[in-house]
Each structure stands twice: as C-alpha cells, then as structure tokens.
Design a protein that fits this description.
By secondary structure, the protein is α+β, with helices and mostly antiparallel strands. 26% of the residues lie in helices and 45% in strands. It has one domain. Strand 3 and strand 4 (104-127) form a beta hairpin. This is DUF4136 domain-containing protein.
Length: 150
C-alpha cells in the first residue's frame, strides 16, 4: 500500500513541472512536446508546445537547442532561425451539471478552468560556412555547449 502512495505522490509532483525538453509530440504527451519536419536536406520546421509551466524563455531555449542538434547531426556547423512565432494561448473549459425534479431546479454546479500553452514555431536552416546575412548566425557546437536543458 505504501508503494502505491509513493507512486501517486511522484506522479503528482511530476505533473507540476514544465514540459521536458525530451518530450516528443504524440498521443501520450497530450499534444505537448516537439514536432520536427525536415523540409529539405538543410532546413527543418521545428514546433514545440509546452504546458502551463513552460514560459516563453524556456520554449525559445528549447527551439534553439533543437535547431543546434539538428544542424550538427546533419553536418552543419552553422544555422539560422527564421519565421519565429512564439505564442502563449489560453484554453478554457466549462462543465455544468444540474438536476431537475418536479419542474423545479433542485441543484446545479459548474466547473471552469483555464490552462496555458506556450507554442513556438521556427524554421532552422543549416550552413557549412557562416552565411553573410543580416539574420543572427549561430554556431551549432557553441549552442550545444552553452544552452543547457533539463
């Protein structure tokens, strides 16, 4: 019985954390996490959806780190980010229940909740040489060394 109590306590504690970096968007992650689409050999569309505890700074750091990983794994020491879209969307739900007896309302109650989702979408493009551009050019190896994620 004690083991079951510790299990439920650990689940509750983990539920209060920001969406982890390692989360891949799928059915089991409830739509949270990363989704990466390779649109060409050197270009990726990266999207990340976080929960109530994932703020904009964390979402941006996650996207930056994911872009560095993709670029380095494909052999590109440099990359740029473009078309960045960062949103915090509030989602609400409302449920009501009432019971009617003898054409009178006996009782009713309702429940309303609001949750937030932080979403970032960005295009990452890898380069073999640092491009001459007005956009910020990142070094994949440097980002991987300096941007830590939990």
């Amino acid at each position: 019985m004690k083991t079951r109590g510790w299990f439920f306590l650990s689940v509750l504690l983990l539920a209060g954390c920001a969406t982890p970096y390692s989360t891949e968007k799928n059915f089991w992650s409830f739509g949270m996490g990363f989704d990466v689409i390779a649109v060409s050999q050197d270009t990726w569309h990266i999207s990340f959806v976080g929960n109530d505890f994932t703020d904009r700074a964390i979402a941006h750091k996650y996207a930056l780190r994911k872009a560095a990983e993709l670029a380095q794994n494909a052999g590109y020491p440099y990359f740029t980010l473009s078309d960045e879209q960062l949103h915090v969307d509030n989602k609400g739900s409302h449920a009501t229940y009432s019971e009617r007896k003898d054409k009178k309302w006996d009782y009713g109650y309702g429940n309303t909740s609001t949750t937030s989702e932080t979403t970032i979408m960005v295009i990452a493009k890898g380069y073999h040489q640092a491009p001459k551009t007005d956009a910020m050019v990142y070094q994949s190896a440097f980002i991987l060394r300096s941007v830590t994620v939990e």
